[in-house]
Design a protein that fits this description.
The complex is a heterodimer of chains A (about 130) and B (about 425). By secondary structure, chain A is of the alpha/beta class. Chain A has four helices and ten strands. In chain A, helix 2 packs parallel to helix 3. Chain B has three domains: about 170 residues, 2-Layer Sandwich (Aconitase, domain 3); about 110 residues, Aconitase, Domain 2; about 120 residues, Aconitase, domain 3, CATH 3.30.499. Classes of the chains: A alpha/beta (about 130), B alpha/beta (about 425). At the A-B interface, strand 2, helix 1, strand 4, helix 2 and helix 3 of A face helix 2, helix 3, helix 7 and helix 9 of B.
Chain lengths: ~130, ~425
């Protein structure tokens, strides 16, 4: 079990999709297909739908704050986000979309977990562990 | 997070469901960032293009408005970022009436709430310039970074729902760039280079943006030579920094206002220094470049163009015709400025598509690409070439002159 900073959202369990890369809904995703669409992204062409995304940092513009909720209403959203660091846009986005987010660990979270790991996140206790 | 009696009333729904929804969002965000309290803001700038917002959310917002018997209004001056389409050029950009219908639905709701439909991302340039120390809730990242850095005003990135919330409560949680110590520079860029075109400033923003670790880094930029940048050049530097690095504030030595503020300008927190030369800038141009030499379109947008930028492109075009289209996006205010001039008419006759009140990447860029067959795109905006890759475009960054010449010759120059 590892601890970050107190997060936001509900407790969730799900399958991890991990990369040492960043995240922006506008810059990186094909939100209709539910896949990463930026060719240079390390998760290019992979589906993020219903996955726990484990990535480095939130990046880019403000559109993510609308887009995450839109993706959730269309059943095309990730289940949760675990980030090394985040920014206000991503926090505003998950607050609006009711998606779980946890961040700010002592270790590099993207090298600690692997794609396919089943993770349990408790944002109130600021912890994540592999099942 | 402490809340006062007035804020408690908003939270209890005394002022209606919509403000209650707003402050609940704000408290969640404030508690996440350990804000002690709310502070008042004097202006809101809302980023809400319909591609991002989507029909489902528009309907949710309409329901909130209806549930308050349509009485909810913004309580501070509130303006809008670019729209998702321009009804006057639907066919020219591959848009249909369904897009227009969604756009009208959201625009009507925002107007009813009391938003001024300024439809611009360069509000600091064409509407109201923020003042030093002014607390704001700005949405567009380019607006935020300009207000913070060039004006010395104070705003975090307030994404659409957050800016909407601020317009209804007149408040934001006090964290991030509302606090002195967060505004202090922590990474130094020593620049020994020549910047000649808007795209050069964008390329510098791209290099610095890629070198930082994200929102909480505050670059201090020092130039070895004396520079006297124009507002447009600083605009391109800022939008690019925000795009590539998620940066909301930078300082320029002996230039930006907080350099002269002892509470802010403090180099004790500088954790690293990076030298930037022309080589770094040239490498950005090499990397932001598509294969081959056949462009489909040249776009001047992101940020929208000022009066000076429009005049410059008009002059560069001269009497020549285009082999591939040029698209420019301008705020309604700029369109009005040219009302008694022939410049825009002349440009349209040459084949320039003029989008009023939109900004290319916020206008269903994926649909434009597919419908218009515009896959290879040239721009002088580093932000645009960066952002459009997610929409499947192949993009090249070029100087303004090169971009215009490429449109005239039909070749990537």
């Amino acid at each position: 079990m590892i601890f970050g900073k107190k997060g936001i959202g509900e407790k969730v369990v799900g399958e991890a999709l991990v990369a040492n890369d960043n995240f922006s809904a506008r810059y990186d995703l094909d939100r209709e297909k539910g896949v990463f669409s930026r060719q240079l992204h390390k998760l290019y062409n992979q589906s993020y739908v219903n996955k726990i995304l484990v990535l480095n940092s939130a990046k880019g513009g403000v559109a993510t704050s609308w887009m995450l909720r839109n993706m959730k209403l269309n059943n095309k959203s990730p289940k949760a986000l675990i980030l090394n660091s985040t920014n206000p846009i991503m926090v505003q986005a998950v607050a609006f979309a009711d998606i779980t987010l946890i961040h700010n660990f002592d270790i590099d979270i993207t090298s600690y977990f692997k794609t396919g790991d089943i993770l349990n996140i408790n944002p109130y206790k600021a912890c994540v562990y592999k099942i | 997070m402490k809340i006062n009696d007035k804020e408690k009333k908003i939270l209890d729904g005394v002022y209606g469901y919509f403000p209650q929804w707003a402050i609940k969002q704000q408290i969640k965000v404030g508690e996440f960032f350990d804000a002690d309290q709310f502070i008042q803001v004097s202006e809101c700038h809302l980023c809400a293009d319909t591609e991002s917002v989507g029909e489902n959310i528009i309907e949710e917002l309409e329901q909130l408005y209806i549930s308050d018997n349509k009485k909810t209004k913004v309580i501070i001056p509130s303006i809008t970022d670019p729209r998702g389409t321009d009804p006057k050029c639907l066919e020219k950009i591959g848009h249909d009436y369904q897009i227009l219908k969604i756009e009208n639905k959201l625009s009507n709701l925002l107007s009813s709430l009391g938003f001024s439909m300024t439809n611009t991302c360069i509000n600091y340039q064409v509407i109201t310039k923020p003042s030093f120390g002014q607390s704001l809730a700005y949405g567009d990242t380019g607006s935020v970074i300009f207000a913070n850095s060039i004006c010395g005003a104070r705003s975090n990135f307030e994404g659409g729902p957050a800016a909407l919330a601020a317009s209804l409560t007149g408040l934001v949680p006090e964290y991030g760039f509302h606090l002195d110590h967060i505004r202090q520079p922590n990474i130094l860029f020593n620049c020994e280079l020549d910047l000649k075109d808007l795209s050069d400033y964008g390329a510098l923003g791209a290099f610095i943006g890629r070198s930082v670790s994200g929102y909480w880094d505050v670059p201090l930029i020092k130039f070895s030579n004396i520079i006297k940048p124009t507002t447009d050049e600083l605009k391109h530097l800022g939008t690019s920094l925000a795009s590539y690095g998620s940066i909301a504030l930078f300082h320029i030595d002996e230039l930006t206002p907080e350099f002269y503020d002892k509470k802010i300008y403090n180099t004790n927190n500088i954790k690293s220094e990076i030298l930037v030369t022309n080589k770094n800038i040239n490498k950005i141009y090499e990397e932001e470049n598509f294969d081959g030499n056949k462009p489909d379109v040249v776009v001047f947008s992101a940020p929208q163009l000022s009066e000076n930028e429009v005049i410059n492109i008009h002059q560069l075009l001269g009497d020549r015709k285009l082999k591939i289209p040029i698209l420019i996006s301008i705020p309604p205010v700029i369109k009005n400025l040219f009302e008694n001039s022939e410049i825009l008419d002349n440009m349209e006759k040459k084949g320039v598509i003029i989008v009023e009140g939109g900004c290319f990447y916020q206008m269903y860029a994926n649909i434009i690409r597919k419908k218009m067959g515009w896959n290879n795109l040239i721009s002088n905006s580093a932000k645009l070439v960066n952002i459009l890759k997610g929409y499947g475009y192949k993009t090249s960054l070029r100087t303004t002159n090169q971009a215009v010449e490429s449109a005239i010759t039909g070749k990537l120059l």
